Amino acid sequence: MPDQTAPETVTAGTPERGRRIDGKAFAAGLRKQIAGDVVAFHEKHGITPGLAVVLVGNDPASEVYVRNKALETHRVGMRSFMHMLPETTKEAELLQLVDRLNADPEIHGILVQLPLPKGMDGRRITNAIDPKKDVDGLGEVNAGRLSLGLPGLVPCTPLGCLMLLKSELGNLRGLNAVVVGASNLVGKPMALLLLNEGCTVSVAHIDTVNPQALTRMADILVVATGVSGLVGRDWVKPGATVIDVGITRIPASAGKTKLVGDVAFDEVAAVAGRITPVPGGVGPMTIACLLQNTVTAARLSLEGAPD
Ligand SMILES: Nc1nc2c(c(=O)[nH]1)N[C@@H](CN(C=O)c1ccc(C(=O)N[C@@H](CCC(=O)O)C(=O)O)cc1)CN2
Question: Which residue ranges does the record assign to the Tetrahydrofolate dehydrogenase/cyclohydrolase catalytic domain (predicted)?
Answer without folding.
Answer: 21-136
